[in-house]
Amino acid sequence: MFAVIKTGGKQYKVAENDVIDIEKLDAEEGANIAFDTVLAVGNKVGTPTVAGATVTGEVVSQFRDKKVIIFKKKRRKNYRRKNGHRQHLTRVRITGITGA
Predict the structure, then answer these.
(1) Nearest by Cα to 98 from 61, 44, 30
(2) Could you give the angle at the alpha carbon of 6 between the alpha carbons of 3 and 12, nearest 5°?
(3) How many domains in the chain?
(4) Domain interval for residue 36
(5) What distance lies between CA 95 and its chain's CA centroid?
(6) Interval 43-90: pLDDT, tens
(7) In this structure, are residues 64 and 88 in contact, taking their beta carbons and an 8 Å threshold?
(8) Do residues 37 and 55 touch, judged by C-beta distance below 8 A?
(9) Which of 30, 77, 87, 91 could disulfide-link 65, Cβ–Cβ 3.0 to 4.6 Å?
(10) What are the φ/ψ torsions at residue 13 (nearest 5 degrees)?
């Protein structure tokens, strides 16, 4: 069985024992978390969410993603800007899906 959850402004299709990287959550490693914003469970699609459905997971690690380089340039104007960004992420293992 799979579910579609929404967290961090993004949607993720997950199944049990999946490991996903999501936007940073304030939780320690090894902590259990529950996602209540479940958009779909199996063939049941919510309007907009499935009532009573939850997805539980365990925090595996907190880390930062690879660096993304932002480079802006305007030709013939001697305008160049180089910037970098590393996003904070949380790695979560999905432990259970309960659908109403």
Answers:
(1) 44
(2) 55
(3) 1
(4) 2-98
(5) 15
(6) 999 989 999 999 999 999 999 999 999 999 999 999 999 999 999 999
(7) yes
(8) no
(9) 87
(10) -90, 120
